[in-house]
Write a structure and sequence with these properties.
single chain
Length: about 260
């Protein structure tokens, strides 16, 4: 059974090509025009059944995925790649570790959109820096947005290897980019984040001006508080002064909620 592909279908293909692998929840947020996630499950299933998308269960457990079943991962089919002239990639998109990295990057974009739906950021713009064939990337994404009248231009690196020789060269190259004022490094857990902070401190020293342009957070913290309200850290583990007023607002609200629960208990 053939279907007439519509504008939304091509938008779905565009985002899947950009991120390489996506979950249904990602796509729902990305294609929304009214800052609310839309229902697209039936359409995704139809595109899969008609060979426009490939779909499989992610092989491993993801700590941020809370349902009992492992999530469905969508990629472009060869048919759709030919229709859309999608660029080729050197990545093995069936590899669970590759998928996890790409899904984590997509999560960060979605969290920004959620912050936008709550009016925490405006004028949000995201560029995925994919590893396409023959390309070189220093960050996983470039982001610009406005918070309290201030424009932020950020490069995001997702879970880099702590002992990687390329880490410092990627940081230095990113910070010389005219499109980036800061680099945010997101780790999967606090232990890895501490190793990254120690590695960078050993390479450039904690007083280096480069450290003023780097901030750290974990995925767990970001999923809990969002991109703006999270407690971003400096190289030496102190609270980065990016969104101090947002952190104070979040903590005040959390304390108020805890008191209310204690009173009602």
């Amino acid at each position: 059974m053939a279907i007439q592909l519509n504008e939304r279908d091509y938008l779905i293909f565009k985002y899947v090509e950009e991120h390489q692998v996506l979950l249904e929840k990602h796509i729902a947020w990305f294609i929304s025009v009214d800052q609310k996630a839309v229902l697209i499950r039936d359409r995704l299933r139809k595109l899969f059944y008609l060979d426009y998308l490939l779909c499989q269960r992610h092989k491993n457990t993801l700590p941020w995925w809370t349902t009992p079943t492992k999530p469905l991962v969508y990629t472009l089919s060869p048919l759709t790649r030919s229709i859309t002239n999608a660029r080729e990639t050197d990545l093995d998109l069936s590899d669970a570790d590759v998928q996890r990295h790409l899904l984590e990057v997509a999560n960060l974009r979605m969290l920004f959109l959620i912050d936008g739906s709550e009016d925490l950021v405006t004028e949000f713009d995201w560029t995925t820096c994919g590893a396409h064939r023959g390309g070189v990337r220093h960050v996983d994404a470039k982001v610009s947005f406005v918070r309290n009248g201030v424009t932020h231009r950020v490069g995001i690196i997702n879970h880099p290897e702590a002992a990687s020789d390329s880490l410092m060269s990627n940081l230095e190259a990113a910070l010389t980019d005219d499109d980036i004022d800061m680099v945010w490094i997101v780790s999967r857990d606090e232990d890895h984040q501490e190793k990254l902070q120690q590695s960078i401190a050993a390479a450039v020293g904690t007083d280096s001006s480069i450290n003023q342009r780097i901030a750290f957070a974990t995925h767990q913290e970001l999923y809990k508080a969002g991109m703006v309200k999270s407690r971003w850290q400096t190289v030496d583990g102190r609270t980065a002064s990016i969104f101090v007023e947002s952190i104070m607002e979040f903590e005040a609200k959390t304390c108020h909620r805890a008191r209310a629960q204690a009173v009602s208990a």
